[in-house]
Amino acid sequence: MKKTFVHTQNAHRFTLTLDGLLNRGAEEACIMVVDGKPGLGKTRVLERWAIQQEAVYIRAMRMWKPAWMVRDLLDALDPTIKHARSMEHLMKQCRDAIKKREQLAERDGLVFAVVIDEIDHVVKMKPREAADVLESLRDLTDTTKVPFILVGMGEVRDGLAAAYPQIMRRSRPVRFQTVEIEDVRKLVDAMCEVDVKDDLVAYLHTASRGFVGEIMEGIKAIERQGRRNRGKPMDIPSMRGQELMTDRRSGMPIKVK
Question: At 35, is the secondary structure helix, strand, or coil?
Answer without folding.
Answer: strand
